Amino acid sequence: MTPFFYSQDKKGLYSILLVLVVFFTFLPSLSFDYVNWDDDPHFLKNLCVQQPLSLTSVECAFGQFVNDSYIPLTTLSFMLERQYFGVRPFVSHTINLIFHIGVVLLVFFILLSLGCSSAVSFAAALVFGIHPMRVESVVWVTERKDVLYAFFYLAAVYVYLLFIRIKLRSGEGRERFQAFFYFAAVLVLAWCSILSKPMALTLPLVLFLTDWFFKRCWKVRAVLEKCVVGVVVWPVAWWTFQMHRGAAMPVSVWQKILVVLWSATFYIRKMVFPKMMVEVYDFLARSVWRLSSIRWPLLFLCFWFCLCIFSARIGWLYSEWVFMFYPVFIFGALELPSENPTSWLIVLCICRRSG
Q1: How far is CA 201 from the centre of its chain?
Q2: Distance from CA of residue 185 to its chain's centroid?
Q3: Angle between helices 295-313 and 318-334 (to 10 degrees)
Q4: pLDDT tens sequence for the chain (355 residues)
Q5: pTM for the complete prediction?
Q6: What sign results for the dihedral spanned by CA atoms 104, 105, 108, 113?
Q7: CB atoms within 10 A of CB 178
């Protein structure tokens, strides 16, 4: 056995436990079939996926919008699956589960890199991995785009943490080359994430928050790094936004603010109280787009601001609470689906305080 499995912090043991628990939790899904909700356009009846793997089929994937979303890498994954395994639900569900296990392990190692103990990182990753909100992304074949984009997204965050370590040490020579390599890897992973699902457009903002968490000085070079990542991800997201623009409901700026405030706490509520979990949630009807419809989110935000002030007075880092909830605004406003980094970002600060 390598020292990884015998290390004092038991990272290897916790990693194996995470894999086993998550695998056996979702094991029943491997016997499920396809469904008639979006599995047809994404996989079963997708003309690009049906083509033999070739340069022409790859061009087809990169020139196709699926349900008005630009997800060529997800389409390529379905194409490769169909090329080598055919149309077999067991294979489709197994691939989703494998990517989900990879996401859970990334959550574990990211939390370790952020300073949490092995036990706390394990507990947080376990909650993330088997939470009821994960079911949609893992069990629904169409949501391959969720687990795929989340895997590349969190991989980019993890590699960026390696990049930051070198930058904080002011590395020179060989370390400078390593930093360049890590940042190039972040760009590649960011590109893969945005091509899997446009929701990866928040990655530059999360990297800014990561700098803040480590108290890295926001010099021109640090800002330019995030701008380069933005150049990689934002044009693809904008392209999808333009496709959805015609189908979107016309709303005023005030109504948009109300929707953002309502959405900001939606995933927190579902994470803490995972009940009434359904495939599609009713959007706020126009008749209730008024201040009274968001009274609970407003109360929650007031509580949050008071907690920030109280934390600062007793010596806690209020920036950690901001780091905890600011991504919720970003992800909530975009109505990110279940397999997203918001959950581990929320758990992160609780872990940071306890571990």
Answers
A1: 10
A2: 18
A3: 160
A4: 455 544 556 888 999 999 999 999 999 999 999 988 888 898 888 888 888 888 998 999 898 888 878 889 999 999 999 999 989 999 999 999 999 999 999 989 988 888 888 888 898 889 888 888 888 889 999 999 999 999 999 999 999 999 988 877 765 666 777 888 999 999 999 999 999 998 888 889 888 888 887 888 778 888 898 999 999 998 888 887 777 665 555 666 666 666 666 666 676 667 777 766 666 655 555 545 555 555 666 666 677 667 666 655 544 444 444 444 444 433 333 333 444 444 444 444 444 444 4
A5: 0.81
A6: negative
A7: 15
Cα–Cα separations (whole angstroms), residue 11 to 7, 15, 97, 118, 120:
7, 6, 22, 6, 11
What are the backbone angles phi and psi of residue 69, rounded to the nearest 5°? -120, 140
Interatomic CA distance for residues 181 and 188, integer angstroms: 11
Let me know: does 197 contact 71? Beta carbons within 8 Å: yes
Q: Kindly state the greatest CA–CA separation across the chain.
A: 64
Q: Is 289 left (phi over 0), alpha (psi -120 to 50) or beta?
A: beta
Residue 81 CA from chain centroid, whole number: 23
* Structural contact between residues 51 and 79, judged by C-beta atoms closer than 8 angstroms: yes
Residue type, 227: C
Distance CA 42, CA 57 (A): 15
Strand partners, 66: 69
State how far the Cα of 44 lies from the Cα of 47, in Å rounded to an integer.
9
Q: Report the SS3 class of residue 69.
A: strand
